[in-house]
Each structure stands twice: as structure tokens, then as C-alpha cells.
């Protein structure tokens, strides 16, 4: 296992619209994707792009901020928001070249994988690891999109 | 205000040594700085470097993971760890070109700045913004190091 790119950090929010306004108006974000539903995961998400250049210039291929709003009554985000009503940092996501190999690696380390490998917000296979086995952090592992 | 680079995410931990072992052995990190004390902030920190290339190759100039352990009895991290004994995501840090200008911007937006501007872990001026004014996220603003 080799540490991959920090693809995104997931931020839960009670209102994706309010969060978009915050990132655009207060933080000065210029590239935010349209929100879309991921019904299988019970969430609505969008991505805030960040610059790679330290002066805010350069490409916008830095670690993204994934804004996550609950979708439906069974959304796993409701529990998080009950504890953190204003929203907050929900998970981190690292890229790997081969998601099946990574899953076998973490299972071999005795880490609890949460549910089946499934298709994530970037259209590639992902899985989540239990925060109690990951130094308190809910950790998503995603296969790198082929177009990157 | 223009969104700057996501310099690092801050992860609180009850044991920086255990977290270093986790990132090195389980996550496959290859570049982790030596921990050092920041007595003025009541923390011991180190940084895990992440790759910019999506396959784990390329430079190691991606968003860093700052590991934060309490230092001293008055450390502000004790409260966080009391609520999150395993550790977890503590703050996010964005770069700006001019920290004084950024501070004035956030104050003008009615955001609560926590304490004075001071020197942060990268040796440049930083300040923190209240999570309740930042969609639930404790947010650090740091001036970009001149050597980047």
C-alpha cells in the first residue's frame, strides 16, 4: 500500500445551498459543481474545487471539498448532523490505483470495511473504513478516475 | 477574497506516535516530518505529505495531514479529545497571500476570529475562525510560505 492522492475531504451540511453560498461568497471559491443525488448512499453532493498553486493561481486540481447533504429519511448523514447541527468534517478520501487490492490490504490489516465496494461520486469504485479502526477518521478509499 | 490552496487538514490524536505508525504502516505514507512542539498553541505537531499525482507518484506537494497531539495541561486539544477519544478531524487550513488582508475580510463578513494573528506550524502568520461562523468547521487561514 502506497499513500495516494488526498482526493477530497467530505463536509456534512444541513443545507448544501447555504454551504455553496459560504464557499462562494465568504471563501472565494470560483469552481463548484452542480449538486447531484446519490440515492444509493442517501446523500446529495457537490464538489468545491481548490487551486494547486499556493497563490490561488495554477490549476484547480487540488484536494476537493465534497459538500454532503442528507437525502431521504434513512440518510446516514442525519446521525452526524444530530451530533453536529451546523455540519462539519465527515470523512477523508484517498485515491488508490486498484480498489480491490486496497480492500484486501485493509481487510488483511484487520480494519473493518463498511459495506460492499460501490460506485462513488466520481464514478469509480469506493469503500469506507470504520473510523474506530482509522484513528477516529471515517476514511473513504476510491479508485483513481481513468481520465486523471 | 479568492479561495487559496488547501494547505492541510488538522487531525487531532491522543498519540502522535501511534498516528505516525498508522499513516506509515497502514496507509503507506513515505514522507512524515519529525514532530515538534508549538508551546504557544499547546500542541505537538508533525506533517504527513501526500502526493499530487493521482497514482501516488509525482511530487509530494499535495494537501498535508497535520497530526496534532496535546502539549501541556492547558492544550486546547484536550477538550476535542474528551469528545473524540480516538482523535479525528480537527480543522482545515487554507492559504492566502496576505494574512492581514484576509483577517480584515473575514472580520468585515462578521466572522469571529479566535485570538491574535500568530506564527503557525509552517512559520508564517495564521489565525483561526470560529467553527460556528464557518459551517461547523474550525478554519485556519495561513499566509503562503515564501519558498513555495
From TrEMBL, chains A, B:
MF annotations from Gene Ontology: metal ion binding; methylmalonyl-CoA epimerase activity
Q: What InterPro entries does the record tag this protein with? A: Glyas_Bleomycin-R_OHBP_Dase, MeMalonyl-CoA_epimerase, MMCE/EMCE_epimerase, VOC_core
List residues of the VOC domain. 5-144
Q: Which UniProt keywords apply?
A: Metal-binding
Q: GO biological process: what's one of them?
A: L-methylmalonyl-CoA metabolic process
Lineage: superkingdom:
Bacteria
- Which family is this protein grouped under? Belongs to the methylmalonyl-CoA epimerase family.
- NCBIfam families the UniProt entry points to: metmalonyl_epim
Q: Supply the PANTHER family for this chain.
A: METHYLMALONYL-COA EPIMERASE, METHYLMALONYL-COA EPIMERASE, MITOCHONDRIAL
Provide the protein name: Methylmalonyl-CoA epimerase
